Amino acid sequence: MSCLVFQKTVFLPTPSNDDRRADDQRINDSLGIDSLHIPLGILKKLDLHKRPFPQELSLIIGQDISGQKIIDIRKDRSYSVALDLGTTNIAAILFDNITQKKVIETSIENPQIKYGCDILTRMHHAMSLSCDKVYSELLKGINELLSAICSKTGIALDDIHAATVAGNTVMTHFFLGLDISAIPALPFVPVVRTPGFFNAADLGLTINAEAIVYVFPNAGSYVGGDIISGIVASGMEESNNISVLIDVGTNAEIVVGNSEWMIVAAGAAGPALEEGISVIGKRAKNGVIYDIEINNGKCSCKTFDEAQPEGICGSGMVSLLYEMYKSGIVDQTGKLDTASPNVLNIGDEPAYKINCNGSDRLHIRQIEINNFLKSKAAMFTLLLTLLRSVGLSFGEIKNVYVSGALGTGINASKAAAIGMLPEWPASIIKPLGNSSLTGAFMLLKDSSLIGKINAITAKITYKQMYDDPEFMREFMGAVFIPHTNPALLKV
């Protein structure tokens, strides 16, 4: 297993009347690498004849579109970065190419959020007079994140020699500066499906100009490289057993398949689980609630690292709605009972005060409950419809991988009790966290995954759901808790 970028030291023999090879030939022959590309910028930096021969030359080498290329010379430090271009957050992992260790993981809010919390609103702005600003905000945010990483770790931007980038189809197009106007309109066609490799300088990234940038392929107009990366992270493509990958954010995206075939679909899940849209919604981190119990009107909350509650993640939202329904705080339609303890009015809207661990700063409004129910309905209906389309039942699924907003600490029984998931046993449900970032990070450590990514992309089938009559028919029943037809949840 070799990293996407690696360091190699070569011994260059002395030129002579009997050895008149050019410098690039001398390097190529010493490395013994077929299809080696030496960029013009590297040739200009060689200055071999200003130094005594014979000499050793330290090279930073990485995967390129047609083989391998030299990225930098005379460097004893080399790093790569994995990027997840999320609608709400841009997340990154810094990797040391020489020690082959993870250095830091961090994230920032996607600055495009000023043009809309959801991707459709941003697309509208991008197709109007705000086009250049929407695109430039993303690049600005990425470069700010890269600079912050360098400040925290004491490395130079020039020491970053590679980046792997995963995001949904629209975010990928924003990153590459490509037209997105055809994606939301029939027949929903993106400009590119398999972007592949680029030079950092060509994309406006402020890392080493010769750094390689790999952008994950997409599977359809609304199923992007983040899902392909998530498939890699799950390992579901390596098993003969049929598995499901579920990623829920602004969209619900579901993959079904195994080592031989895969089918994927997406549906609008609403913003209920996305940080930055729900007032209390947060990604999994210290101070974020991941589980709740309500007994006799009193809340007991579990937060990551047992810190004081500062918000709630997707799994916590599932737990909260289950407990509210079980305690009669909301009815089957999700409507708040204004006579229940801790239900109050905020403006003209009822809300439930989450009074837990001595803190009552958090509350969930009726509109957020409604959004959540639409999200869980979209997710379950998408799953049901997709499985039916390939003749499968819930009981035939052997592994369920859950990522995105639900990807940390989901309680399977509570999710089933509100109708978000079928009644799968907890033993087959495997939370992945941010699988998009994980897959991008895995590629930094193992360049052979390029072949696996290509194989996944080639065999995956994208099912369009925007006008599927069965989806529309089943969705309305799934908005209720747990469902107007609870028998559908049985495994």
Total tally of structural domains: 4
Q: Per the principal axes of the C-alpha atoms, what is the gross shape?
A: elongated
Alpha carbon gap, first and last residue: 40 Å
* Backbone structural class: alpha/beta
Strand content: 25-35%
Please count the beta strands (DSSP E, at least 2 residues each). 22
Rg measurement, Å: 25 Å
Helix percentage: 25-40%
Per the CATH scheme, the topology name of the largest domain is Nucleotidyltransferase, domain 5
Based on the model shown, name its key terms.
491 residues, alpha/beta, Ubiquitin-like (UB roll), Nucleotidyltransferase, domain 5, 6-stranded mixed beta sheet, 13 helices, 28% strand, elongated
Describe the protein in words.
It is a single chain. The chain has 491 residues and is α/β, with parallel strands linked by helices. The protein folds into four domains: 5-73, Ubiquitin-like (UB roll); 79-215, Domain of unknown function (DUF4445) (Nucleotidyltransferase, domain 5, 2-Layer Sandwich); 235-270 and 371-434 and 447-489, Nucleotidyltransferase, domain 5 (2-Layer Sandwich), CATH 3.30.420; 288-360, no CATH class. It has 13 helices and 22 strands. The chain has helices at 23-31, 40-45, 119-126, 131-153, 169-176, 200-203, 225-234, 314-326, 366-389, 412-417, 435-445, 449-459, 469-478, and strands at 5-12, 36-37, 55-64, 67-73, 79-85, 89-96, 101-109, 160-167, 196-199, 212-215, 243-248, 251-257, 262-268, 288-295, 298-303, 311-312, 343-346, 349-356, 359-365, 399-404, 429-433, 460-463. It has a six-stranded mixed sheet, sandwiched between helices. Strands 21-20-11-12-13-22 form a six-stranded mixed sheet, sandwiched between helices. β18 and β19 (359-365) form a beta hairpin. α9 (366-389) crosses α13 (469-478). It is elongated. The two termini are 40 Å apart. The model has no long low-confidence stretch (mean pLDDT 90).
